[in-house]
Each structure stands twice: as C-alpha cells, then as structure tokens.
Amino acid sequence: MKRASICVIAVALLAGVVSAADLATKKSLTLAAAKAIAAAAAKEAAANKWTMVIAIVDDGANLVYLERMDDTQIGSVNIAIAKAETAVRMKRPSKALEDAVAGGRNVVMTIPGVLPVEGGVPIVVEGKVIGAIGVSGMSSQQDGLAAAAGLKVPLK
C-alpha cells in the first residue's frame, strides 16, 4: 500500500513537471511588416529604375509576400524566393555564401536549398531571425542594395 502511494505521488509530480514546461515567446513576421519591407525595397528599385521581384519569407522559409514589379523577367520570381529561403535557413546574407564560393569553397554550391548569390538578407529583430527578404531582377549587387533598403523599415 505504501509503495503504491509513493508511485502515485511520483507520477503526479512528474505529470506536473511535464505540464509546466515553458514555451518560447518569439516575434513573428506579420503580413503588414512584410509589405512594409517590400515597399521600401521597391521604392529603392524604382528610384534607380530597376525592375525586380521582392520575396519575403517567415522564419520557416514560408513565402509571406511576393511582389513582381512591371516588366521584371519571370525567372526572377523563383530566384528571389530562393535567395530569401537561403538567408533564413543559413541565418546570414546569401552574399556571405557567394563570397565563400568565390573564395574557393565550392562545396557551398552543393548544400540543398541554398542559392549562394547576393540578394537574400535575414530579417533580424532582437537578435533573432524572424524571416528574410530576397530580391532578384538586376545585378546581384543591385539586388543586395534593394534588399538592404527593405531592412531599413523599423519593426516593432
């Protein structure tokens, strides 16, 4: 009887520990924030007469928002998405991977789901990656400049 009571108490205590586990609290990318980031990137592109595709993904690399400016080649749609996915998956700008390849680290080109081309940049809030922007349509350097312009939007 005494042994059964101890087992019941032990199980109850363990159940309390499991049910009291803390969950993480994190910032999430909203559609409104994604649209604001894309608008800032598009403004930079328009000011320079660049035609581009702008893709915004969340922290799971899921597409949240996509904008294709008039007269932008359709091939840039998939490229912009891939650049954003790369930046969020690797938690660094896609240019860092491009630089690695340029420096001789060709193995980077074999990483699944990674496009080592400038134009993808993580969206970081309070030190955490909450998504990424990917831009394609012009030269990689111009894509990177437009992506950087999108990240100047203050997020709260």
Number of strands: 4
The amount of helix comes to 40-55%
Rg from alpha-carbon coordinates: 22 Å
Q: CATH H level: which superfamily?
A: Haem-degrading domain
Mean pLDDT: 92
Q: How are helices and strands ordered from N to C?
A: HHEEHHEEH
Please report the first level of CATH classification, the CATH class: Alpha Beta
Largest sheet: 4 strands, antiparallel
Fraction in beta strands: 15-25%
CATH topology title: Beta-Lactamase
Structural class: alpha+beta
Number of helices: 5
Poorly predicted parts:
none
From the N-terminal CA to the C-terminal CA, the straight-line distance is 58 Å
- Which strand order do you get reading across the main beta sheet? 2-1-4-3
3D shape? globular
- Count of the separate structural domains: 1
CATH architecture: 2-Layer Sandwich
How would you describe this protein?
The protein is α+β, with helices and mostly antiparallel strands and 156 residues long. It has one domain (24-150): Haem-degrading domain (Beta-Lactamase, 2-Layer Sandwich), CATH 3.30.450. Helix content is 46%, strand content 17%. A four-stranded antiparallel beta sheet has the order 2-1-4-3. Helix 2 crosses helix 5 (140-150). The chain is globular, with a radius of gyration of 22 Å. The model has no long low-confidence stretch (mean pLDDT 92).
Condensed summary:
The protein has 156 residues and is an alpha+beta fold. The protein contains 5 helices and 4 strands. The chain has one domain: Beta-Lactamase, CATH 3.30.450.
